[in-house]
Amino acid sequence: MTWKEKVHEVIYEADTKAGKVFDVALFIIIVASLVLVILDSVEHISLEYHTLFVTLEWIITIFFTIEYILRVISIKKPKNYIFSFYGIVDFLSTIPLYVSLIFASSGALLSLRALRLLRVFRVFKLVRYTGAGSSVAVALRKSIPKILIFLYSVVIISFIAGTVMYIVEGPENGYTSIPTGIYWAIVTLTTVGFGDIHPVTPLGQFIATIIMLLGYGVIAVPTGIVTAEMTKENTRKNTQVCSNCGEADHRDSAEFCHNCGDSLHKEQEKEIKNED
Amino acid sequence: MTWKEKVHEVIYEADTKAGKVFDVALFIIIVASLVLVILDSVEHISLEYHTLFVTLEWIITIFFTIEYILRVISIKKPKNYIFSFYGIVDFLSTIPLYVSLIFASSGALLSLRALRLLRVFRVFKLVRYTGAGSSVAVALRKSIPKILIFLYSVVIISFIAGTVMYIVEGPENGYTSIPTGIYWAIVTLTTVGFGDIHPVTPLGQFIATIIMLLGYGVIAVPTGIVTAEMTKENTRKNTQVCSNCGEADHRDSAEFCHNCGDSLHKEQEKEIKNED
Amino acid sequence: MTWKEKVHEVIYEADTKAGKVFDVALFIIIVASLVLVILDSVEHISLEYHTLFVTLEWIITIFFTIEYILRVISIKKPKNYIFSFYGIVDFLSTIPLYVSLIFASSGALLSLRALRLLRVFRVFKLVRYTGAGSSVAVALRKSIPKILIFLYSVVIISFIAGTVMYIVEGPENGYTSIPTGIYWAIVTLTTVGFGDIHPVTPLGQFIATIIMLLGYGVIAVPTGIVTAEMTKENTRKNTQVCSNCGEADHRDSAEFCHNCGDSLHKEQEKEIKNED
Amino acid sequence: MTWKEKVHEVIYEADTKAGKVFDVALFIIIVASLVLVILDSVEHISLEYHTLFVTLEWIITIFFTIEYILRVISIKKPKNYIFSFYGIVDFLSTIPLYVSLIFASSGALLSLRALRLLRVFRVFKLVRYTGAGSSVAVALRKSIPKILIFLYSVVIISFIAGTVMYIVEGPENGYTSIPTGIYWAIVTLTTVGFGDIHPVTPLGQFIATIIMLLGYGVIAVPTGIVTAEMTKENTRKNTQVCSNCGEADHRDSAEFCHNCGDSLHKEQEKEIKNED
């Protein structure tokens, strides 16, 4: 086993003890780095601990740089990693400080704030720690096409509701344009209801009432979609496997495989024979 | 094939290449037209690009005019189209500019703003692109009677809640009349909660608390209705019946009956034979 | 058939033509009466049409008085009606105007506003028109014990959340007392979010964040309860009836009655025999 | 039966009449004590009834002290009780007044307000009265791992959404730091929508619109998880297995197997025979 293979085992797999330690250490550093980004955005904290924050940011950046280089070196096909989702995330998590040095020397200090955005991409490094293949994810992925059709309808409803409110209430009551009206309609349909804009005229309040009742019925739809998909997912789990063709997706009451027509109870029958 | 039939194929069907190109082009023009309506409503944009917007609006209107005329000409029974949902939508999407010309000449410039409302009907042209027969739509349509009974109850609850709050809080705390109270009750029951009106007295806050907890339990109902209907819809899809034992409760992917093991495709096989 | 029986048929049953006409007329008068109550609460309308409103209110009151007297006379056991839910509602819908006369003569004009509350009880007269035995109502009634346990937990959570916020934010940020804190907690947990009171300190905002995420998970519970009950209700409907004992609540895949053990397919078997 | 056993029966069990009386009395005192804590926090009430409140608080504290001592004495292994959830709750419910005496004598009057927090723990004494083993609780407990994964995703989304809004809207529109942005994102995603902070710029409103639509789809997930778990729980209850054919999927009320028609109570019948 070469040193590259050893490194690969440590950073890509969590089977060995070294691998697990690396995973936990990485997790802590990511979270620490995110806490740093958050605290850095609070002005009075940022001013007080400026030197400490810069130092810590450099330590974290160097750590991520080493991690990135090791990941590229230790994998057989570096291209697969570099252009994968995690490859891009790791890259974007590393460069902000280097880029800010270049910007600083060229005098474009204003863009430094936008660079903070890039550091936030580090949060995606945490996605590695979620089981991506969980049954929740499966049910969600299957619901996406239906939810998209649904969102399409919501957007159409918002468009009409927003325009109607723009005409009824008008700019004097905060509905300054159709986009503002649509923004209000979505705030209302999703039941968020900030209250920054709200109907003032009796007619506007009446129409808003209808929109809200509509939203009330409509909020049931994505819930219904996901729930139906999840219930399905649940039922699918408890199933017998056909000993002939391997099909596993049978009903609870099935006697024969719906795929090949073979009896599902052969093994049980054998067991009964063996017991005799 | 006459030219009318050719036109019919292009604008009514999406099977041929020309038909698909027409569909995509129409989709882009509708969306562009809606973006135009939206931007036109933002005052400072509207003032700056006035000439451009008028020109584009004329181009779009002429395109919709041609589309409308071709749809009327190329169909066998024009009446069926003209008085159908899409016929009316297409008509209302076309006329605003023409009507505004007449209004402008007669000096009634004030009504021009209301005419913008008619242009918004173009959004309904987008409905053509949603699969109307999707299982979501089916489940929704079946839930409507139950949801109506439910909304009826919500309206009755809102009526009482609104009146009680009007009496308890009174005009001095924003509940200026029973309609305002009902408006507040619906804003609260649907969990939108704008906050433009809210209870101020301790008793009012206590009653609001009970209304909110009620709304909390009540929001479950439309969700329950739609979800139950969707779960049903999911189960219902498997409509093949075994020709041997009559079992009907098969999975979509079933090839053989899970009850007797007989092939589910016998009839299809026969049909294929008969066609030979 | 005596005249009492005829009156009974008209006002208690909707089978005959006269009964249907009475039902529709009553429905219109109730709704008209409610619209009157609503409009009467809007000050500027109330002042303008004062005489008209008083006249209409008298007509409606006299109509309800006649209806109430007829209902009492035409029924065999008047006590059953008078002390039933609808009897009390009908009584309370009739008396406000009479009581206001007495109050007016005794000079207590201030209480007139509270009397309006009684007129609102007329809304309950509309409940007669909703099918009380619908499957939605059944599922809801079965969910009530579970929802009560749930509300009990929500109240306990609100109590703690409200107290914590009262201590953390304090009266200077709007949390003037524990009841106010509890009011805020329920406004937040039910996702209504008026915004009349909201956390201002960073610690308060952090705790609010946790409360909201908790509420996010918790709102799923009543929905889950009602949905599970409704899905159950749905499954229960599509069922075969046992020809031996009359039990109807069988599974779709049942071959024998789970109540008496008799074959469920006897009739089908007979039909098959008859066809031979 | 020693007096210790008698006390144990009264305070730990609700079988005897004395035990039931004790339970009801305790329930009333806990609720009364909580009402006292609540009213005490309302300044003008607290000032007016100061002496009454202090007296009542002493009576309640002495009652809880006696209860606590009796619970410790009457149980066989006091350690099990003292360090159990209810033991700690009972202890924390009793001490605040005693501690406040010590603090008062040492002059640290400022901390008295924080001591009120401890009295709130009495609400947990109410948990004893909820059936902890209800099917709702079971379904919730089983949903926790999935809901945690889900909350993890929500936190990641909030983090990104909050940062983006901080950059787009900036401190001048209320998004003073990333933590504030995250607070706003959670307020929005959970559809609470206080409105204390809200987007002002068109771009901010557009991004907020997308976040709300996302939240709209996302709120379906915990509901789906809990509902699916509850539907499962409902189905799982029917646990009788037919001793003849092994079919397990029976209704609760089933007397005979729906698959083979055999009695489901054979074993019970045998057991009854054996007992004879």
What would your notes on this structure say?
- 4 copies of one chain form a homotetramer.
- Chain A has 13 helices and no strands.
- The first copy, chain A, is mainly alpha-helical and 276 residues long.
- The mean pLDDT of chain A is 78.
- Chain A folds into 2 domains: 127 residues, Voltage-gated potassium channels. Chain C (Four Helix Bundle (Hemerythrin (Met), subunit A), Up-down Bundle), CATH 1.20.120; 73 residues, Helix Hairpins (Orthogonal Bundle), CATH 1.10.287.70.
- The radius of gyration of chain A is 28 Å and the shape is flat.
- In chain A, helix 2 packs antiparallel against helix 4 and helix 9 runs antiparallel to helix 11.
- Chains in contact: A-B, A-C, A-D, B-C, B-D, C-D.
What keywords describe this structure?
homotetramer, 276 residues, mainly alpha, Helix Hairpins
Count of helical segments of chain A? 13
- Low-confidence segments of chain A, given as residue ranges, are none
What is the oligomeric state here? homotetramer
What is the count of distinct domains of chain A? 2
Topology, number of strands of chain A: 0
CATH topology grouping of the largest domain in chain A: Four Helix Bundle (Hemerythrin (Met), subunit A)
Distance between the termini of chain A: 54 Å
Rounded average pLDDT of chain A: 78
> How does the overall form of chain A come out from the CA principal axes?
flat
Q: Rounded to an integer, what's the Rg of chain A over CA atoms? A: 28 Å
Pair of chains with the largest interface and how many residues each contributes: A-B, 60 and 67 residues
Domain Ion transport (chains A, B, C, D): 20-236
GO molecular function (chains A, B, C, D): voltage-gated potassium channel activity
Main location (chains A, B, C, D): membrane
GO biological process, one term (chains A, B, C, D): action potential
